[in-house]
Amino acid sequence: MDALTFLRERVALFAGISEELLAALAEASALNPYNKGQTILFKGGTVDGLHVVAKGKVALSSKPPNKPLIEIAELGSGEVFGETSIIEMGTSRATVKAIEDGTLVLMIPQEAFRVLLKSSPDFVTRLLALSAARRQA
């Protein structure tokens, strides 16, 4: 399945986004493979773009001050991460690792993603709601 079809049909976050905007995201994106245990993002590291799990699973973990490392979430196909860091122009709040061999992650560069943010207020609202829900979890 090509990136455009995947974004259109399998990523709920992009529901209702125009074909033109999705095509631009798909064209700018890169599909990156990871094996079990490989780190995709480090907590405190720069986030280069929005990451979309295309295949496999990833785990987000964090180490609160004076506490042990905890798993925050597991994400599967069609789910995204890195959105909060882009919106807030900050660094990653969690370490993200592949938890299955053959995990594929579609990375949409920040520049392309920011075009979508500027073009769709409804999308920004959904993204902010996702970010807020993750903070509460």
Characteristic terms for this protein:
137 residues; alpha+beta; Jelly Rolls; 36% helix
Name the CATH superfamily assignment: Jelly Rolls
What about the largest sheet? 4 strands, antiparallel
Enter the CATH topology name: Jelly Rolls
User: What percent strand?
Assistant: 25-35%
Record the SSE blueprint:
Layout: H1 3-10, H2 19-28, E1 30-34, E2 39-41, E3 49-55, E4 58-62, E5 70-75, E6 80-81, H3 83-87, E7 95-98, E8 103-109, H4 110-119, H5 121-136
Antiparallel strand pairs: 1-8, 2-7, 3-6, 3-8, 4-5, 4-7
Helix pairs in contact: 1-2, 2-4
Write up this protein:
By secondary structure, the protein is an alpha+beta fold. The chain has one domain (3-136): Jelly Rolls. It is 36% helix and 28% strand. It is built from 5 helices and 8 strands, in the order ααββββββαββαα. It has a 4-stranded antiparallel beta sheet. A 4-stranded antiparallel beta sheet has the order 2-7-4-5, with no helix packed on it. A hairpin with a 7-residue loop joins β4 (58-62) and β5 (70-75).
Short synopsis of the structure:
With 137 residues, the chain is α+β, with helices and mostly antiparallel strands. It has one domain: Jelly Rolls. The protein has 5 helices and 8 strands.
